[in-house]
Every structure is written in C-alpha cells, then in structure tokens.
Amino acid sequence: MIQQIQLVLSPPNDVRIPQSWSYRLYGWLMSQISSEFGEQMHLQGEHPLAHFLCFSPEKQSLIWTVNLLNDAARQVVFPVLESAKEIPLHELTLPVSEVRTFPAISAEELIRSGRSRSETRAKIAFLSPCAFKQSGRYAIFPQETLLLQSLIAHWNAAFPEYALIDSDALQALQQGLHIVDYNLHTTRYLLKETRIPAFQGNVTIEARLAPPLLELWNALLSFASHGGVGIKTTLGMGGAATDFYKKTPVI
Question: Model-level pTM?
Fold first, then answer.
C-alpha cells in the first residue's frame, strides 16, 4: 500500500522559499525518525518515499506533498507528518497550517483504475524540477522511452510483487507512446553545491496501444502522482500530476 499526505506551510510574506528547500524538509524529516530506519532507506536502490514542494496561488501557501511508497514508510513516517505543527529549519521555522491525508491505495486499485479508463491521451504536469540520467549525462527533455523506463522503475520498487518485467510487452508499450504536445522550460535544482539541469512544465502523450497495454499504461500514469518521474524523487525532484482525456476529433 502507498499513501500520500500534504502539509500546507505558511512562510512569512516577505520570504521566498525555493522548491529546492524540499531537500531541507527531507533533512528535517530524517531527523524525526529512527536512525535505523533512515539507514535502511538509504541502503535501498529505490527509496520508499517521494516528495516535492510547490506554491499554491489559491492558498498563497506552500504545499509539501509526501508519498509513502511501502508499509514500513507509512508506519514510521506518517505519524510524524500527521502530527507536525511546525518545521524548524536552520533559516526559519515554517508553521504547518493544514495537514491533508489521503486514503492508502494498492497496486490492485491502480491496476483497476487503468482498466476503467479508455482515454488515449494524458497530460503529465511536472510540478517540481525533473530530469533523467542517460549515458551518464542529464537528459532535460521527457522522451517517451525515458518516461516509461522511469515509471516502470518506480513502480517495480513500490510493488515488487507486481513487477513489470516482460520485455516484449514493454517494448510494444514503448513503441505505442508518442509525445504530441509540450510546454516546457529548463530550470536548475539546487542540491547542496550542485545545480542539477532539469525541466518543468507539461507534456501531452498519445497512446496508440491495444487494450491490455493501454490499461497498463494508464495504471502507470495513475501511479505517477505518487512515485514521481525521473531522478532524485526522494530529494524533492520529479513531482508529477496526470490528467486523462480523449482525443478531440477533427471536424
């Protein structure tokens, strides 16, 4: 089971908080849990936590979205976040004005969600800086192959009992995906002393797939808002949201 929780943070009006401060929030969170669990998290190739920080114009507040991607993370981390009243950082203390919790969901529910959808287009919004690693270099355009590989890697880490390993099916899935529109801009994500090249914005992807593969793709897209996209999702990168819709016929 995986679970999402959001903390609404209210910084002082004259203080601009960059999205890269999600890394500092992560540091605070690690200081609130046992060192044993923290060490266990860092020993894993894929960490059981993905999170990001973004600004809400409606609330004039920061929204810290944290996704807990296995039962152990839910048991250890969720109580810390649910009870948080303020988050002290080195520079200032961020009050927590609201905590939003969402029901835990399973792989089976995501798969059923994929089966229930017939839409062949989806818009993926990249809500925090996103990047991929390809041949040892940062890739700052969301190619279909990179998107698919990332979603599958995050899915397999969260749901090893439902691991996607059929190479023929995955190749067919990749061949049926096409980016048909995008609105992106490059950015940098400051991580310690490194400014990681990245992008934000959105892409529209059309899926020309047989029904079983379309169901699988839509399940992965439903998972994207929890598992994130690209590299360093444990450190605040790759926050995503997906909107499904049908292709508008040309009249």
Answer: 0.92
